[in-house]
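Sequence design from tokenized structure. All designs in this work follow the same two-part layout: the structure record, then the generated sequence. An example of the structure record is given first.
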């Protein structure tokens, strides 16, 4: 029985072409700036994202942390969405390591924040207040179900923030999913922000790594912070080589993941006992619910024994993510197994 793993697009394994590129990569010591493969990946990335410079990081979590470390000082405040990955899933690193406060503004179901609410959250000049230094957006928005922020929305948030001398970081872990969903280049989505991070290791299928982009000056500072947190890697070209192949070969195919996500959503919606709040899935993340006699945790266990894995969000809510390792036949197979299981459980 094939296990159909829909827990995350991080489970994607490197392609054969990536493995060959890793084997053959030209290497050097990247802490001395001498790894030609890293240098090439950083150059390529800055061109694709439309920023002056880019930096290879171990993970998206490190990319976001460096963006905060390089653009704030301890005691300052960072505005994030109430559903932001930085707020939920990064171990409080911004506070533990950056000494900043995270201030949340509600995310709507599209992953946006209301401009008036942002404005109200921005600190005034009162002597008692911390300074608001940074605002973070997320595109696509993970906890909001892979929703996509348009360049117009991003632009309006950035002009509000810049008007108050606040920088903007975009957590673009899945920025290429957003670009494919909108049919625009990723650089359009990053145009106005000061810094942007994205993952090579999710839908793009590289084994390890993320990129952080911004001005040359910002990247120079982030590089120093990266060294401090232990992210200065030596012959890291061995993994960057896979990242280069990822950018060359796996961006356009994300459209397949989006089509499979819709196929999955439509199928789940037709299974008695399951429902999908947003059948028109914006990218590769499908949120769904159950109304069964068994608990959500039991349902998950039952499905796992049938070889279908997905994420639990509590309260009979689940997340399934499509990616390169599941094709449309696997989606149909998963739907069959969902149907058999829910019929049995009632
Ligand atoms: C996955 C993810 C990250 C973190 O990436 P890691 O490489 O897992 O550390 C950051 N932001 C968002 C929105 C993500 O989905």
């Amino acid at each position: 029985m094939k296990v159909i793993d829909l827990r995350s697009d991080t489970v994607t394994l490197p392609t054969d072409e990536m493995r060959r590129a890793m084997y053959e990569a030209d290497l050097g010591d990247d802490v001395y700036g001498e790894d030609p493969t890293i240098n090439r990946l950083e150059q390529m990335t800055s061109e694709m994202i439309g920023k002056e410079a880019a930096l290879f990081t171990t993970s998206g979590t490190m990319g976001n942390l460096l963006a905060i470390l390089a653009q704030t000082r301890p005691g300052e405040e960072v505005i994030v969405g109430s559903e932001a990955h930085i707020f939920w899933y990064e171990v409080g690193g911004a506070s533990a390591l950056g000494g900043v406060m995270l201030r949340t503004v509600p995310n709507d179901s599209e992953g946006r924040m209301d401009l008036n609410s942002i404005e109200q959250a921005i600190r005034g000049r009162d002597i008692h207040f911390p300074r608001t230094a940074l605002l973070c957006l997320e595109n696509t928005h993970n906890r909001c179900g892979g929703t996509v922020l348009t360049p117009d929305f991003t632009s309006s948030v950035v002009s509000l923030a810049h008007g108050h001398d606040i920088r903007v970081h975009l957590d673009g872990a899945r920025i290429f999913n957003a670009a494919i969903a909108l049919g625009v280049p990723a650089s359009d989505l990053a145009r106005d922000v000061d810094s942007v991070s994205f993952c090579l290791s999710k839908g793009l299928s590289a084994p390890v790594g993320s990129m952080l982009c911004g001005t040359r000056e910002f990247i120079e500072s982030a590089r120093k912070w990266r060294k401090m947190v232990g992210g200065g890697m030596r012959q890291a070209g061995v993994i960057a080589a896979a990242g280069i192949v990822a950018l060359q070969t796996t961006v356009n195919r994300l459209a397949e993941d989006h089509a499979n996500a819709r196929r999955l959503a439509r199928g789940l919606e037709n299974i008695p006992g399951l429902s999908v709040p947003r059948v028109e899935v914006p990218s590769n993340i499908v949120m769904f619910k159950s109304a069964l006699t068994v608990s959500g945790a039991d349902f998950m266990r039952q499905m796992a024994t049938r070889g279908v894995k997905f994420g639990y969000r509590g309260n009979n809510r689940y997340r399934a993510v499509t990616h390169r390792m599941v094709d449309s036949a696997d989606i149909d197979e998963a739907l069959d197994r969902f149907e058999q299981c829910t019929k049995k459980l009632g």
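The first helix runs from residue 16 to 24. We note this feature because it recurs in several other targets discussed in the main text.
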